């Protein structure tokens, strides 16, 4: 988990910095055209991106790392062999491995009497979600339903789901 975060950090920073530059340029164009807008906050370069990076680092630090679960790993390999989602056309095992562990953890939590919702959060809709949807792909639905695991495409969607369920304010 930490390696993947570190591997993707440079691209995420670059995307964030490009977004801030694009927002600032659009704001300036609106001002040049005489459109009314509140004053653009002046931030030193990198400040917002540095804060977002620190927030993501803090979130990662607060997360628990799960031990390898060989039942979940076996399930993942079976999915790849059967060419079922979340296995991709390339036959990679990573997304199946993630889902297998999430399903196994959810199942164990249910068995232990854990009463709260369990959600897998991933923006990877192409492998986890039904086409043009924000719910699990039909290949995944039976296993997810059996484990009591739901899907959210973002942390914002997960928070909204938990609010609807009455689990957070």
What does the secondary structure layout of this molecule look like, with pairings?
Layout: H1 2-32, H2 47-62, H3 70-82, H4 94-111, E1 118-121, H5 125-128, H6 141-147, E2 149-152, H7 155-164
Parallel strand pairs: 1-2
Helix pairs in contact: 1-2, 3-4, 4-6
Number of domains: 2
Q: Provide a count of the helices.
A: 7
Q: Based on DSSP secondary structure assignment, what is the total number of beta strands?
A: 2
Strand content: under 5%
TL;DR of this structure?
It is built from seven helices and two strands. It has about 170 residues and is mainly alpha-helical.
What would you note in describing this structure?
With 169 residues, the protein is mostly helical. The chain folds into 2 domains: 2-35 and 43-62, no CATH class; 70-164, no CATH class. Helix content is 59%, strand content 5%. The chain has helices spanning 2-32, 47-62, 70-82, 94-111, 125-128, 141-147, 155-164; strands at 118-121, 149-152. A two-stranded parallel sheet has the order 1-2. Helix 1 (2-32) packs antiparallel against helix 2 (47-62), helix 3 (70-82) crosses helix 4 and helix 4 packs parallel to helix 6. The longest helix is centred in the N-terminal third of the chain and has 31 residues, at 2-32. The relative contact order is 0.09. The model has no long low-confidence stretch (mean pLDDT 84).
């Amino acid at each position: 988990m930490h390696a993947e975060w570190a591997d993707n950090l440079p691209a995420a920073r670059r995307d964030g910095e490009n977004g801030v530059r694009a927002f600032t340029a659009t704001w300036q164009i609106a001002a040049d055209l005489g459109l009314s807008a509140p004053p653009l906050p002046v931030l030193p370069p990198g400040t917002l991106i540095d804060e977002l990076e620190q927030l993501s680092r803090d979130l990662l630090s607060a997360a628990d790392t799960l031990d390898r679960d060989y039942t979940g790993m076996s399930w993942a390999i079976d999915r790849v062999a059967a060419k079922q989602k979340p296995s991709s056309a390339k036959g990679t095992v990573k997304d199946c491995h993630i889902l297998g562990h999430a399903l196994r953890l959810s199942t164990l939590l249910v068995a232990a009497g854990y009463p709260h919702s369990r959600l897998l959060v991933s923006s990877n809709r192409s492998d986890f979600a039904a086409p043009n949807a924000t719910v699990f792909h039909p290949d995944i639905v039976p296993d997810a339903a059996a484990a009591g695991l739901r899907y959210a495409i973002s942390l914002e969607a997960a928070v909204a789901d938990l609010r609807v369920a009455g689990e957070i304010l």
